[in-house]
Amino acid sequence: MENQTRRTRKTEQSERPVEPLPGPASDSPPTVLALIERVVLDPHADVEKLDRMMAMYERLKAKEAELAFNGAKGRILKKLAGIKIVKNRPVLSDIDNGKQRGTVEPFKYAPLEEIDKHLRPLLAEEQMDLSYSDEPCEGGILVRGRLKHLPSGHYEDSFMPAPPDTTGGKSNVQAVGSTNSFLRRYVACNIFNIVVVGDDDDGNGGTIDEAQAKTILELIKKAKVGPKFLKYMRAESLEDAGSLEAAVATIAARDYRKAVSTLEEQIAKAEAGHAHLS
Q: What are the C-alpha distances in Å from 276 to residues 225, 270, 273?
């Protein structure tokens, strides 16, 4: 009877569920690294197996770094959403068209230091760094912005090209410097989806920004259009604005795509006509 009681207790104990010991996930970098160390110490280790484990470890570390990067960037984006960055620096243009002489202000923009003033403390708080580099490219300058999460080492790049800014009688060096600063501003805004706001426009959507104005000016030169285009876009005339740059800057932001498509269509027609004549 006593033996039967012992067997019953033993059976009951064996049927109880065994709680697993807590430990790191089997696919976590520390776990894989521990396995690699064990394989390395094994004199009969399989070299191919070790290579596969090393590749797995590198992939896990890279994924871990990407997640840390995305988390830090996400927190910065959330804080930037509550910050208002305003266009506070005017662009001045000299005019002398025979009827009017002086200086006009075609538009305003937010300088790089204004954007950096709001962005830099958030980057430092999340241990992130935004750096820039530039190099020549066909027709101008290419600026690269690199956002890096310092603890993990993960980074992402953003690129933007533009021709040298020769407006306003700038020298070659000044043109390169102006374009470099211009591209850095827009790279930073692209990386963090920063929307720079202008003055109150009574809900009409405002006018095109600096980058859009430059694009339209380049297209106007290629299309060789005149005052009729400005009238079609309901912009100020050359006489009223004082210069082509100032007149283009009065095009409504909501009409930007319309202006670009109109000019591109005009350029295509001109090129088709030229090809037909040749």
A: 21, 10, 5
* CA proximity to 168, closest of 217, 119, 212: 217
Structural tokens at position 250: 């009065």
Three-point CA angle 233, 167, 204, nearest 5°? 30
- Nearest-angstrom CA–CA distance, 237 and 240: 5
CB neighbourhood size of 42 (10 A): 10
pLDDT in tens, the chain (278 residues): 455 545 545 444 444 444 443 444 456 666 766 766 676 666 766 777 767 777 877 888 888 899 999 999 999 998 988 888 877 777 666 655 555 566 655 667 788 899 999 999 999 999 999 999 999 998 889 999 999 999 999 999 999 999 988 876 788 888 888 899 989 998 998 899 887 776 434 334 577 877 888 889 989 988 888 888 998 998 888 887 778 888 888 888 888 888 888 898 888 887 776 554 44
Cα angle, residue 185 at apex, residues 244 and 105 outer, rounded to 5°: 30
Beta-sheet pairing, 89-96 with 140-149? unpaired
